[in-house]
Write a structure and sequence with these properties.
Helix content: 25-40%
Strand order of the largest sheet: 1-2-3-4-5-10-9-8-7-6
Number of helices: 5
Structural class: alpha+beta
InterPro entries: MS5
Largest sheet: 10 strands, antiparallel
Number of domains: 2
Order of helices and strands: HEHEEEEEHHEEEEH
Mean pLDDT: 80
Low-confidence stretches: 222-234
Length: 351
């Protein structure tokens, strides 16, 4: 009988299996390593991409900052240029203003031909009265009042012939103004014409409150004589109707006060004013009461007057006009208050 051999795994097969297993594990390791390297490369690429984006953003920010820096430098240059321009304008303004006002005050404000400075910068406006209608009624009344002041001081009887020109200084049209008036006055006794200068300085726009500082012949450049003061005793002088023509300054004060309060009133409106009664309060005591009306003194004038409104209607009005004088300098100020007493319809009363 032959020998029986027991069955079992074939060593070559086992070895083959082990080999295949090792190869499989090697492939897994290799695949794992490749994936790891790919993942690493991917992360490196993503990181590099992020760094690239950050660098690009940083470079953009740097460019923007450089642009802003250039803009700021340009703005600084512009501001410095504007400041230099302002400094130059201010220097020019001060020099020009100084030159302007130096020439203005050399003529006391009366001759500013050839000078220009905008009113908003404090300049004066010059007006030439070529025709009679070129001169506003207010300026004409100021001219007459200035002559009246001069006549009281000097004992003359100069009358207004015509206004040649006037300069006006005011912050705006709603504010009080100063007028420098050049005119021609005539002496009725001789017929001679005298060039004359008058300055009026308003202190109120809605009512008469004005001061007359300059009233002089053009060539003299003086403001009149110096007078002594009187004792403060008050006297009341009723003014008769016959004295009104001789003391025409009462009518002049009334017209000036009326126009100062009603600045748009036409010149023809003044003929509608009729003086009814006048009382003058003064500090002068003389033998003839009528002489107190002619002195260069402080006075208060109380006037009752009628204003003809037309169509039979009349306004009964009162005016209180105060005159202040400076005996040392010769300056004169006028201030008035007008009030409505009653309004009457004459046509109904006549019926």
């Amino acid at each position: 009988m032959g020998e029986v051999v027991a069955g079992g795994p074939n060593p070559s097969m086992i070895e083959e299996k082990k080999k295949r297993k090792r190869e499989k594990m090697m492939r897994k390791k290799e695949n794992k390593r490749k994936k790891k390297e790919e993942r690493k490369e991917q992360l490196e690429m993503e990181e590099e991409k992020q760094w690239g984006e950050l660098i690009d953003q940083y470079e953009l920010e740097i460019e923007e900052l450089e642009k802003k820096k250039e803009q700021l430098m340009e703005l600084q240059d512009q501001l410095e240029a504007k400041q230099r321009a302002r400094n130059f304008k201010r220097m020019y303004k001060y020099r020009y203003h100084g030159h302007y006002w130096e020439r203005v005050w050399k003529s006391d404000g009366f001759d500013i031909e050839g000078l220009e400075l905008h009113p908003a910068l404090g300049g004066m406006l010059a007006f030439v009265c070529k025709k009679e209608n070129d001169c506003p009624i207010l300026v004409s009344l100021y001219a007459k009042t200035g002559l009246h002041r001069y006549n009281m001081l000097e004992g003359t009887n100069l009358q207004l012939h015509r206004v040649k020109k006037y300069n006006r200084k005011s912050a705006c049209c709603f504010m009080p103004a100063t007028y420098y008036i050049t005119l021609e006055a005539v002496d009725p006794a001789t017929g001679s014409v005298v060039p004359f200068q008058i300055s009026s300085h308003e202190r109120s726009k809605g009512e008469m409150d004005v001061r007359f500082i300059v009233a002089r012949p053009q060539e003299t450049g003086t403001n009149g004589a110096v007078f002594g003061s009187k004792a403060p005793v008050f006297y009341y002088v009723p003014v008769q109707e016959s004295e009104l023509k001789e003391n025409d300054w009462i009518r002049l004060y009334l017209e000036l006060g009326f126009v100062s309060t009603n600045r748009r009133a036409p010149q023809s409106k003044l003929s509608d004013l009729k003086i009814v009664e006048v009382m003058v309060e003064t500090k002068e005591d003389v033998e003839q009461p009528s002489e107190r009306l002619k002195g260069f003194i402080d006075a208060v004038v109380y006037i009752k007057y009628d204003e003809d409104l037309g169509e039979g209607q009349v306004c009964k009005r009162r005016a209180i006009i105060t005159r202040f004088v400076d005996l040392e300098s010769g300056h004169m100020s006028l201030k008035s208050h007008h009030s409505l007493e009653v309004k009457i319809d004459e046509s109904e009363r006549a019926v």
